[in-house]
UniProtKB/TrEMBL annotation, chain A:
Name the UniProt record assigns to this protein: ABC-type polar-amino-acid transporter
Keywords for this protein: Amino-acid transport, ATP-binding, Cell membrane, Membrane, Nucleotide-binding, Transport
Catalytic activity entry: a polar amino acid(out) + ATP + H2O = a polar amino acid(in) + ADP + phosphate + H(+)
Lineage: Bacteria, Bacillati, Actinomycetota, Actinomycetes, Kitasatosporales
Coiled-coil annotated residue ranges, if any: none
Primary site of residence: membrane
Superkingdom, taxonomy of origin: Bacteria
SMART domains attached to this UniProt entry: AAA (SM00382)
EC number: 7.4.2.1
TrEMBL record, chain B:
Source species: Streptomyces spongiae
Pfam families according to UniProt: BPD_transp_1
Membrane topology, record value: Multi-pass membrane protein
Name the record gives this protein: Histidine/lysine/arginine/ornithine transport system permease protein HisM
Keywords assigned: Amino-acid transport, Cell membrane, Membrane, Transmembrane, Transmembrane helix, Transport
């Protein structure tokens, strides 16, 4: 299997605060890759680096073999233009903790927005596809609802459908269930499980250890901006080697 | 006694007694006293005006006078054009202020500081009197003319009002753009949308909800502020009304007439503003706010002391 995401010594700081202090990891094509760790450990920041919402300060980050945010010519790096960055983001879907649905559009309008505006798909086709996607996340009957009329879990599922509408090769999930009421978490996880079974490459920042254990193919525990421990989720979660992993898991499990 | 009907109040009903409560409602005697006092004062005022030497008949006589109608047209035209200058200028200034370029953002800051900090009447006089400083308008080979020919009263009025308005609109637009959650921009970018598309499709439609209400106020304000340009020899509603007043001897009557026209125009504008606001509120609240008709009905219902079922009568 080829690497969908490859990080080599990725550093990121905000002002004087160093958030990522050299991340090395590899996400294989088709796998579900879970990132866990205490808040402030840099896992969300790393996720946001993957689609260049944050600029990497040092190190190299590759998606599907291509450098993120820069072009290398000889030994010089050139920053990519905004339009080039946008072009690459088309292939990377992202789901946010706070859903970030467009509140002035209905569910189906949210889903067709990017295909129509970015890829130039005709509206009728985009709509048919959007309705299929909404059906897939179990919300066929909510196509005409505005985000405020939907529950958090429903909003998050629309957000997943919106990301899928661009036919991404990689999906990023930034704590997709953290802002949800406990009884709504299951619906969203079901959709993600279904997506994983379809073979989508997924990088998931999560606090749902159950999901990581059942669905995850790889798992990384981050703390203080570094990867502390990584491996098979079942091994790491049941038999953590590192002391920091043990203390973190003892608190959340 | 009023015709207060006792209605069912299921919320107040204790769980054991399913029978609806029939109680005598509290009498608000204070309200009756206040109403009587207010009506009394109103009556005095009407009586005072009725006793004044006012030729009320002059108002309907001149209401649709040709010169008055011309004045109304000029006032509307000036309001429209000044607001266009103001809104376009305001958007440009807002984007300049929010840009990362320190030169453009400082220039925008300075512009807003200057035009908001000086009275619009002073600005109008300055534009009007610039002819004392500049003899010619000289734009090299493009345009050259004597200042007094170039700076007509119309242009003076337009520049004075429009450039002043741009400073206010800039702050309104900036507030609107800043009010949109950053997550919206991120979500749009993550979907591969460009900056321009994100601004146009995602940010501005949401900013409009914040921008429209104060802009409606600005339009209404502008309509009234146009009356100031009478000071720089531009003929609009007030100026024509004053002229007629002087020649016909009905000075005060013509001022009332002008006031009535301003009231009519601002009322029409507020209704328009209401519907524009309603349009941009879609998606932001579960239920659209009631239309004025629905609201009036709700108010009438609440007058009869029944809890109004429709919202928006706060």
């Amino acid at each position: 299997m080829t690497a969908m995401v490859k990080a080599e010594g990725v550093h990121k700081s905000f002002g004087h605060v160093q958030v990522l202090k050299g991340i090395d990891l590899e996400v294989k094509s088709g796998e579900v890759f879970c990132l866990i760790g205490p808040s402030g450990s840099g896992k969300s920041t790393f996720l946001r680096c993957i689609n260049h919402l944050e600029k990497v300060n040092a190190g190299r980050l590759y998606v599907d073999g291509e450098l993120v945010g820069y072009r290398q010519k000889g030994d010089k790096l050139y920053e990519l233009k905004d339009s080039e960055v946008a072009l690459k983001r088309r292939d990377i879907g992202m789901v946010f903790q706070r859903f970030n649905l467009f509140p002035h559009m209905t569910a189906v309008e949210n889903v067709i927005e990017a295909p129509v505006q970015v890829k130039g798909v005709n509206k009728g086709q985009a709509r048919t596809r959007a309705l299929e996607l909404l059906d897939r996340v179990g919300l066929a009957d909510k196509a005409g609802s505005y985000p405020t009329q939907l529950s958090g879990g429903q909003q998050q599922r629309v957000a997943i459908a919106r990301a899928l509408a661009m036919d991404p090769k990689l999906m990023l999930f930034d704590e997709p269930t953290s802002a949800l009421d406990p009884e709504l978490v299951g619906d969203v996880l079901d959709v993600m499980r279904d997506l994983a079974e379809s073979g989508m490459t997924m990088v998931v920042v999560t606090h749902e250890m159950g999901f990581a254990r059942e669905v995850g193919d790889s798992l990384v525990f981050m703390d203080g901006g570094v990867v502390v421990e990584s491996g098979n989720p079942r091994d790491v979660l049941t038999n953590p080697q590192h002391e920091r992993t043990q203390s973190f898991l003892s608190k959340v499990l | 006694m009023t015709d207060i009907k006792k209605t069912d109040r299921p919320a107040d009903t204790p769980p054991t007694g399913p029978e609806a409560i029939k109680a005598i409602p509290v009498r608000h005697y204070g309200r009756y006293v206040a109403a009587v006092v207010a009506l009394g004062i109103l009556g005095l005022l009407i009586w005072a005006f009725a006793g004044g030497n006012i030729n009320w008949g002059a108002i309907p006589d001149y209401f649709f006078n040709d010169r008055i109608l011309t004045g109304v047209r000029e006032t509307l035209l000036l309001t429209l054009l000044s607001m266009i200058i103001g809104i376009v200028g305001g958007i440009v200034l807002a984007v300049m202020r929010l840009s990362k370029n320190p030169v453009t953002s400082s220039i925008a800051w300075f512009y807003i500081w200057f035009f908001r900090g000086t009275p619009v009447l002073v600005q109008l006089f300055v534009w009007f009197n610039l002819g004392f400083v500049f003899e010619y308008v000289n734009l090299g080979p493009v345009y050259k003319d004597e200042w007094s020919d170039f700076m007509t009263p119309f242009l003076t009025a337009l520049l004075g009002l429009g450039l002043n308005e741009a400073a206010y609109m800039a702050e309104i637009c900036r507030a609107g753009l800043l009010a949109v959650d950053e997550g919206q921009t991120e979500a749009a970018h993550a979907l591969g949308m460009s900056h321009g598309k994100t601004l146009r499709r995602i940010v501005i439609p949401q900013a409009m909800r914040v921008i429209v209400p104060p802009t409606g106020n600005e339009v209404i304000n502008m309509l009234k502020t146009t009356s100031l340009v009478a000071a720089v020899q531009y003929y609009e509603l007030l100026r024509y009304a004053q002229d007629i007043g002087q020649t016909s001897g009905a000075t005060v009557e013509m001022l009332f007439l002008a006031a009535a026209w301003y009231l009519i125009l601002t009322s029409i504008l507020s209704v328009g503003q209401y519907y524009v606001e309603r349009y941009y509120a879609r998606g932001s609240s579960r239920q659209l706010p009631p239309t004025p008709l629905q609201r009036i009905r709700a108010n009438l219902l609440s007058l009869s002391n029944r809890p109004a079922s429709t919202g928006g009568t706060a």
